[in-house]
Amino acid sequence: MIKDYKKNEYYIKFLVYLFIASAYSSQLIFTTLCTPIMFRSLLGKWIFLYKHISISIVSIN
């Protein structure tokens, strides 16, 4: 009976650690893969707006 209890306790701990590790790894994958893409697209939009505004200012003058 005690061995079964210990086995269940280890199994539950293993599942909890596995869940934590999977959450951490998915967050790490999202950070390394998706953030540069989002930053690059945001940077591209800012550069486009800057060029558009600077052309508008030059054409007004």
Could you characterize what this model shows?
Keywords: Membrane, Transmembrane, Transmembrane helix. The chain crosses the membrane at residues 12-39. The protein is an all-alpha fold and 61 residues long. The chain has one domain. Helix content is 97%, strand content 0%. The protein contains one helix and no strands. The radius of gyration is 26 Å and the shape is rod-shaped. The mean pLDDT is 73.
How is this structure best summarized?
With 61 residues, this protein is mainly alpha-helical.
Helix/strand order, N-terminal first: H
In helices, the fraction of residues equals over 70%
* Number of helical segments with 4 or more residues: 1
Tell me the fraction of residues in β-strands, as a range.
under 5%
Shape: rod-shaped
For the report, how would you describe the main beta sheet? none
Number of strands: 0
Ranges where pLDDT stays below 50 over 5 or more residues in a row are none
Distance between the termini: 88 Å
Q: What is the count of distinct domains?
A: 1
Rg computed from alpha carbons, rounded to a whole number of angstroms: 26 Å
* Class per helix and strand makeup: mainly alpha
Mean pLDDT: 73
Transmembrane segments: 12-39
Keywords: Membrane, Transmembrane, Transmembrane helix
Notable features of this structure?
single chain, 61 residues, mainly alpha, 1 helix, 97% helix, rod-shaped
Please outline the helices and strands.
Layout: H1 2-60
Transmembrane segments: 12-39
Keywords: Membrane, Transmembrane, Transmembrane helix
